[in-house]
Amino acid sequence: MKKFFTVFAGRTASFSGSPTAFVVALGTVIIWGISGPLFGFSEVWQLVINTGTTIVTFLMIFLVQNSQNRDSAAMEAKLDELLRAVEQARADFIGIEHLTEEEIDDIRARLEKECGRKGEKPPPHHAMTRLLSRR
User: Fold this and answer.
1) DSSP-assigned states of every residue in 103-117
2) I want to staple 89 with a disulfide (CB 3.0 to 4.6 A). Which of 20, 59, 83, 102 is the partner?
3) What sign for the dihedral angle of Cα 115, 116, 121, 125?
């Protein structure tokens, strides 16, 4: 069941972000709008689009969240591998995504203090400075 849901959620989330899905949704709204005079713009006519969009939105939240959770977990695993592989990196950063928000804020503050930037915005990277100067 988990494998089926993972595949289904991934494909559905991928399709829902495609131009085809947008055209289908836009077409549905246009057809609904055009059909208004046929139904006298009745409350039932309005209820159809409201109910339909509410149901689709409700279900899509779970599918998109599942895809985002998997993407985040994969990214965290990749970053953990980089931390493990690079000799100068601090291995104690592996798994910090499981800490509370306050604990992560403390770590960020200590890192900024180590770099001498307490409360300041970090200076832009040299490549970013070059890129911005091209404007």
Assistant:
1) HHHHHHHHHHHHTT-
2) 83
3) negative
